[in-house]
């Protein structure tokens, strides 16, 4: 199995190529999917047992797969924009001083 992956056309001629960065077999993809589902199920079970006021654990990241870009999270809203938005939602008609 590994020999076939090493001989993948993208890696031919590159002796320093990492086999893990090449194309995955269907079995490897299924194992990664199983790992992701197991992690998510454990996270879901932990969240379901939380009491009011407990800190929610961070949702697990999916297993990195070759050729699949990670989703980039949106950057946090700048504090100035957050203040303006809150004031606007509360009915402020003028801009805050200094902005």
General description of the model:
The protein is an all-alpha fold and 99 residues long. The chain has a domain of 67 residues. 39% of the residues lie in helices and 0% in strands. It contains three helices and no strands. It is flat. It starts with a helix and ends in a 10-residue tail after the last helix.
Structure at a glance:
The protein has helices at 2-6, 26-48, 79-89. With 99 residues, it is an all-alpha fold.
Helix content, binned percent: 25-40%
Low-confidence stretches: none
Major sheet size, sense and barrel closure: none
Give the overall form.
flat
Overall mean pLDDT stands at 78
Distance from first to last alpha carbon: 61 Å
Helix and strand content put the structural class at mainly alpha
List the secondary-structure elements in sequence, H or E: HHH
Using only CA atoms, what is the Rg?
Answer: 23 Å
Number of helices: 3
Number of strands: 0
| Relative strand content | under 5%
Keywords, separated by commas or semicolons:
single chain, 99 residues, mainly alpha, 0% strand, flat
Q: What is the element layout, followed by pairings?
A:
Blueprint: H1 2-6, H2 26-48, H3 79-89
């Amino acid at each position: 199995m590994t020999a076939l992956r090493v001989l993948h056309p993208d890696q031919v001629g590159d002796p320093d190529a990492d086999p893990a960065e090449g194309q995955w077999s269907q079995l490897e993809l299924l194992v990664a999917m199983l790992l992701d589902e197991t992690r998510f199920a454990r996270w879901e079970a932990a969240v379901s047992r939380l009491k009011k006021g407990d800190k929610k654990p961070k949702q697990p990241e999916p297993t990195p797969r070759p050729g699949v870009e990670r989703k980039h999270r949106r950057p946090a809203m700048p504090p100035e924009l957050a203040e303006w938005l809150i004031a606007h939602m509360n009915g402020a008609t003028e801009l805050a001083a200094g902005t």
